[in-house]
Amino acid sequence: MTAKIIDGKLFAENLRGAITGHVARLKSEHGITPGLAVVIVGEDPASQVYVSNKAKQTAEVGMNSFKHELPADTSEADLLALVEKLNAHPAVHGILVQLPLPGHIDTTKVIETIDPAKDVDCFTPANVGKVQIGLPGPVSCTPLGCLMLLRDHFAGDLTGKHAVILGRSNLVGKPMAQLLLRDNCTVTVAHSNTQNLADVVRQADIVVAAVGRPEMVRGDWLKPGAVVIDVGINRVPAPEKGEGKTKLVGDVAYAEAAEVASAITPVPGGVGPMTIACLLANTITTASLINGLVPPS
Ligand code: NDP
């Protein structure tokens, strides 16, 4: 079997197209221009790239983009004051504080200061709880992107599928489990203490790998026909490209897995592009809810 490639890049492009339409409607019918504020503290190069991409795509879909770049020695008090200011700013409907923050700043305190109504990353306890009980609001971006790809692949119906999620982080594994449960999957969450991991994965109709271990999931761990969503982004040496060169790989051994799975997301070009698109989708959700409107489904 050669797996179908689930093209996250194309899906994300189409999603951004739909978001552009939602932005235009919010503007023309309600006079609302959704606004996303991104805050970055320090000069971590990877974070700088993420933040620039987020700002660029925000502007491309017609939203207002507010970028706040603060020096690495910014005090916690100053950062909290900025978050409070953005909480109160009427043109800002989404606030994203790029993580990780410098060590002298208490990340939990910063997250808990973000108004849940504007928490487009879905990090605040209030929004985590809403996802759990199925109330409207923003949904964790990466799991939401994975869910969209799966719904598209299964034509909207995941009922009865056994999903095995590898990883239980607050960022990916746990919210992914909640979303798949809501879509009527039988969900198993595996982690570093799981026994006989390969046997557990072999039971899955759907595998979501989010462990941060390069190519850990092997082809012979998969049930033939399984659908594989590879969240992992790992930079590894690539001597075949030249001395000192590197490449990105997922948590799944792609070539082996593609021989057994019925469908698989590539790395790069799978889940990654969906994450930013879902951030924009969450900003539409928060902008709608803040203004008493029903968010587009
Ligand atoms: P974390 O490090 O927070 O969590 C990793 C999880 O994997 C933990 O629950 C850990 O278990 C589990 N784990 C680690 N090693 C093993 C193992 N050998 N066997 C079974 N489980 C294991 O990572 P994140 O969830 O933040 O990210 C996971 C991956 O996804 C990373 O590669 C990251 O770069 C990528 N990522 C990609 C995104 C995208 O947009 N595509 C967005 C976010 C993340 P335990 O809890 O027991 O320690």
From TrEMBL:
Record-given protein name: Bifunctional protein FolD
Gene3D superfamilies named in the record: Leucine Dehydrogenase, chain A, domain 1, NAD(P)-binding Rossmann-like Domain
Subunit (UniProt): Homodimer.
Top-level taxon of origin: Bacteria
GO MF term set: methenyltetrahydrofolate cyclohydrolase activity; methylenetetrahydrofolate dehydrogenase (NADP+) activity
Pathway this chain belongs to: One-carbon metabolism; tetrahydrofolate interconversion
Residues annotated as domain Tetrahydrofolate dehydrogenase/cyclohydrolase catalytic: 6-121
Cited CDD domains: NAD_bind_m-THF_DH_Cyclohyd (cd01080)
GO cellular component terms attached to this protein's record: cytosol
Family stated for the protein in its record: Belongs to the tetrahydrofolate dehydrogenase/cyclohydrolase family.
SUPFAM superfamilies: Aminoacid dehydrogenase-like, N-terminal domain (SSF53223), NAD(P)-binding Rossmann-fold domains (SSF51735)
Pfam families: THF_DHG_CYH, THF_DHG_CYH_C
EC number(s) from the headed UniProt entry: 1.5.1.5, 3.5.4.9
Statement: the UniProt record of this protein carries the keyword Ribonucleoprotein: no
Segments forming domain Tetrahydrofolate dehydrogenase/cyclohydrolase NAD(P)-binding: 140-288
Function: Catalyzes the oxidation of 5,10-methylenetetrahydrofolate to 5,10-methenyltetrahydrofolate and then the hydrolysis of 5,10-methenyltetrahydrofolate to 10-formyltetrahydrofolate.
Positions annotated to bind NADP(+): G167, R168, S169, I233
Recorded catalytic activity of this chain's protein: (6R)-5,10-methenyltetrahydrofolate + H2O = (6R)-10-formyltetrahydrofolate + H(+); (6R)-5,10-methylene-5,6,7,8-tetrahydrofolate + NADP(+) = (6R)-5,10-methenyltetrahydrofolate + NADPH
Keywords: Amino-acid biosynthesis, Histidine biosynthesis, Hydrolase, Methionine biosynthesis, Multifunctional enzyme, NADP, One-carbon metabolism, Oxidoreductase, Purine biosynthesis
Coiled-coil region(s): none
Record flagged with keyword 4Fe-4S: no
Organism annotation: Devosia soli
NCBIfam families membership: PRK10792.1, PRK14186.1, PRK14188.1
Any single biological process term in GO: L-histidine biosynthetic process
